From TrEMBL:
Residues 15-114 form the Cyclic nucleotide-binding domain. It holds the Pfam family cNMP_binding. InterPro entries: cNMP-bd_dom, cNMP-bd_dom_sf, RmlC-like_jellyroll. It comes from Tenacibaculum platacis. Transmembrane segments: none annotated. This is CRP-like cAMP-binding protein.
Length: 189
Protein backbone atom coordinates (compact mmCIF):
# COMPACT_ATOMS: atom_id res chain seq x y z
CA UNK A 1 0.00 0.00 0.00
CA UNK A 2 2.86 2.41 0.74
CA UNK A 3 5.28 1.42 -2.06
CA UNK A 4 4.38 4.28 -4.40
CA UNK A 5 4.30 7.00 -1.77
CA UNK A 6 7.61 5.76 -0.30
CA UNK A 7 9.20 5.86 -3.75
CA UNK A 8 7.74 9.34 -4.30
CA UNK A 9 9.40 10.65 -1.15
CA UNK A 10 12.70 8.93 -1.93
CA UNK A 11 12.91 10.57 -5.35
CA UNK A 12 11.01 13.87 -5.01
CA UNK A 13 11.37 14.92 -1.36
CA UNK A 14 14.03 13.04 0.55
CA UNK A 15 13.10 13.04 4.24
CA UNK A 16 14.79 11.26 7.12
CA UNK A 17 13.67 7.64 7.51
CA UNK A 18 12.04 8.18 10.93
CA UNK A 19 9.97 11.03 9.51
CA UNK A 20 8.90 8.96 6.51
CA UNK A 21 7.95 5.97 8.67
CA UNK A 22 5.89 8.12 11.00
CA UNK A 23 4.26 9.98 8.10
CA UNK A 24 3.31 6.76 6.32
CA UNK A 25 1.77 5.35 9.50
CA UNK A 26 -0.69 8.26 9.53
CA UNK A 27 -2.08 7.68 6.02
CA UNK A 28 -5.32 5.82 5.46
CA UNK A 29 -6.38 4.15 2.22
CA UNK A 30 -9.59 5.29 0.53
CA UNK A 31 -11.21 4.25 -2.73
CA UNK A 32 -13.36 6.41 -4.98
CA UNK A 33 -15.53 5.23 -7.85
CA UNK A 34 -15.40 6.81 -11.29
CA UNK A 35 -17.39 10.07 -11.20
CA UNK A 36 -17.05 10.71 -7.46
CA UNK A 37 -15.77 14.09 -6.29
CA UNK A 38 -12.65 14.25 -4.15
CA UNK A 39 -12.75 18.03 -3.75
CA UNK A 40 -15.54 20.53 -4.30
CA UNK A 41 -15.16 24.26 -4.93
CA UNK A 42 -16.12 26.63 -2.08
CA UNK A 43 -14.88 24.21 0.57
CA UNK A 44 -11.65 24.03 2.53
CA UNK A 45 -9.14 21.28 1.80
CA UNK A 46 -9.06 19.15 4.96
CA UNK A 47 -6.85 16.27 3.84
CA UNK A 48 -3.55 15.75 2.14
CA UNK A 49 -4.26 13.19 -0.59
CA UNK A 50 -1.79 11.02 -2.49
CA UNK A 51 -2.98 9.31 -5.67
CA UNK A 52 -1.92 5.67 -5.52
CA UNK A 53 -3.70 4.57 -8.70
CA UNK A 54 -6.25 5.84 -11.21
CA UNK A 55 -6.95 9.16 -12.93
CA UNK A 56 -8.15 12.42 -11.36
CA UNK A 57 -9.22 15.53 -13.23
CA UNK A 58 -9.00 18.98 -11.67
CA UNK A 59 -11.24 21.72 -12.99
CA UNK A 60 -12.94 25.06 -12.43
CA UNK A 61 -16.69 25.31 -12.90
CA UNK A 62 -19.35 27.95 -13.09
CA UNK A 63 -23.01 27.70 -14.02
CA UNK A 64 -22.16 27.69 -17.73
CA UNK A 65 -19.12 25.44 -18.13
CA UNK A 66 -16.30 23.40 -16.66
CA UNK A 67 -12.68 24.02 -17.63
CA UNK A 68 -10.08 21.34 -16.94
CA UNK A 69 -6.83 22.64 -15.47
CA UNK A 70 -4.94 19.44 -14.70
CA UNK A 71 -5.03 15.66 -14.81
CA UNK A 72 -3.28 13.36 -12.36
CA UNK A 73 -2.35 9.98 -13.82
CA UNK A 74 0.68 8.92 -11.81
CA UNK A 75 1.39 8.57 -8.08
CA UNK A 76 1.59 12.08 -6.64
CA UNK A 77 -0.12 14.45 -4.24
CA UNK A 78 -3.44 15.73 -5.58
CA UNK A 79 -4.57 18.09 -2.82
CA UNK A 80 -5.05 21.83 -3.22
CA UNK A 81 -1.95 22.63 -1.15
CA UNK A 82 -2.75 26.33 -0.86
CA UNK A 83 -6.19 25.65 0.63
CA UNK A 84 -4.78 22.87 2.83
CA UNK A 85 -1.91 24.96 4.22
CA UNK A 86 -3.77 28.24 4.64
CA UNK A 87 -7.22 26.99 5.68
CA UNK A 88 -8.64 28.90 2.73
CA UNK A 89 -11.54 28.19 0.40
CA UNK A 90 -10.64 26.38 -2.81
CA UNK A 91 -11.94 27.25 -6.26
CA UNK A 92 -11.01 23.81 -7.59
CA UNK A 93 -13.01 20.67 -8.10
CA UNK A 94 -11.50 17.21 -8.40
CA UNK A 95 -13.28 14.20 -9.88
CA UNK A 96 -12.24 10.57 -10.27
CA UNK A 97 -12.08 9.81 -14.01
CA UNK A 98 -11.59 6.14 -13.18
CA UNK A 99 -11.85 4.08 -10.02
CA UNK A 100 -9.01 5.39 -7.86
CA UNK A 101 -7.12 4.56 -4.71
CA UNK A 102 -5.99 7.46 -2.54
CA UNK A 103 -3.90 7.65 0.62
CA UNK A 104 -5.09 10.43 2.94
CA UNK A 105 -3.85 12.15 6.05
CA UNK A 106 -5.85 14.61 8.10
CA UNK A 107 -4.59 18.15 8.63
CA UNK A 108 -4.00 18.07 12.42
CA UNK A 109 -1.71 15.00 12.55
CA UNK A 110 0.15 16.24 9.47
CA UNK A 111 0.80 19.64 11.05
CA UNK A 112 1.97 17.99 14.26
CA UNK A 113 4.43 15.94 12.22
CA UNK A 114 5.73 19.10 10.51
CA UNK A 115 6.47 20.61 13.91
CA UNK A 116 8.30 17.47 14.99
CA UNK A 117 10.52 17.11 11.90
CA UNK A 118 12.21 20.10 10.29
CA UNK A 119 12.39 18.24 6.95
CA UNK A 120 8.58 18.34 6.85
CA UNK A 121 8.73 22.09 6.38
CA UNK A 122 11.01 21.62 3.37
CA UNK A 123 8.39 19.28 1.87
CA UNK A 124 5.76 22.04 2.02
CA UNK A 125 8.18 24.70 0.73
CA UNK A 126 9.37 22.53 -2.18
CA UNK A 127 5.80 21.53 -3.02
CA UNK A 128 4.74 25.18 -3.23
CA UNK A 129 7.74 26.07 -5.39
CA UNK A 130 6.94 23.24 -7.78
CA UNK A 131 3.25 24.17 -7.85
CA UNK A 132 4.00 27.83 -8.61
CA UNK A 133 6.43 26.88 -11.36
CA UNK A 134 3.83 24.59 -12.99
CA UNK A 135 1.12 27.24 -12.73
CA UNK A 136 3.33 29.91 -14.25
CA UNK A 137 4.30 27.63 -17.14
CA UNK A 138 0.66 26.69 -17.78
CA UNK A 139 -0.43 30.35 -17.78
CA UNK A 140 2.45 31.34 -20.06
CA UNK A 141 1.70 28.52 -22.50
CA UNK A 142 -2.03 29.25 -22.60
CA UNK A 143 -1.39 32.93 -23.39
CA UNK A 144 1.47 32.57 -25.87
CA UNK A 145 0.79 29.31 -27.72
CA UNK A 146 -1.88 28.21 -30.13
CA UNK A 147 -4.12 25.24 -29.32
CA UNK A 148 -2.20 23.24 -31.94
CA UNK A 149 1.13 24.01 -30.25
CA UNK A 150 -0.34 23.10 -26.87
CA UNK A 151 -1.61 19.80 -28.27
CA UNK A 152 1.81 19.05 -29.76
CA UNK A 153 3.37 19.61 -26.32
CA UNK A 154 0.86 17.18 -24.80
CA UNK A 155 1.70 14.71 -27.55
CA UNK A 156 5.42 14.97 -26.71
CA UNK A 157 5.42 15.40 -22.92
CA UNK A 158 2.13 13.92 -21.72
CA UNK A 159 1.20 11.32 -24.32
CA UNK A 160 -0.22 9.15 -21.52
CA UNK A 161 -2.95 11.80 -21.08
CA UNK A 162 -3.95 11.40 -24.72
CA UNK A 163 -4.20 7.62 -24.24
CA UNK A 164 -6.08 7.57 -20.93
CA UNK A 165 -8.25 10.72 -20.82
CA UNK A 166 -11.40 11.24 -22.91
CA UNK A 167 -10.84 13.67 -25.78
CA UNK A 168 -13.59 16.06 -24.67
CA UNK A 169 -11.67 16.55 -21.41
CA UNK A 170 -8.46 17.18 -23.36
CA UNK A 171 -10.33 19.75 -25.48
CA UNK A 172 -11.53 21.50 -22.31
CA UNK A 173 -7.96 21.54 -20.98
CA UNK A 174 -6.82 23.17 -24.24
CA UNK A 175 -9.80 25.56 -24.05
CA UNK A 176 -11.11 24.48 -27.46
CA UNK A 177 -14.11 22.54 -28.71
CA UNK A 178 -13.90 18.78 -29.29
CA UNK A 179 -14.39 19.45 -33.01
CA UNK A 180 -11.38 21.78 -33.11
CA UNK A 181 -9.33 19.15 -31.28
CA UNK A 182 -10.39 16.58 -33.87
CA UNK A 183 -9.20 18.86 -36.71
CA UNK A 184 -5.87 19.46 -34.91
CA UNK A 185 -5.36 15.73 -34.43
CA UNK A 186 -6.03 15.09 -38.14
CA UNK A 187 -3.52 17.77 -39.19
CA UNK A 188 -0.81 16.42 -36.90
CA UNK A 189 -1.19 12.73 -37.80
Amino acid sequence: MYDKISKFFETEYPLNQHGIDELLSLFQKKKFKKGELLLKANTTEKQLRFLNSGIVREYYANSEKETNINFYTKPQFVSDLFSFSNDSITNRNQEALSDIEILTIEKAPFRALLLKYECGKSFIDLSFQKLLKQKELLEYNRVTKSPEELYQELFIYKSHWLEKIPQYHIASYLNITPETLSRIRKRIS
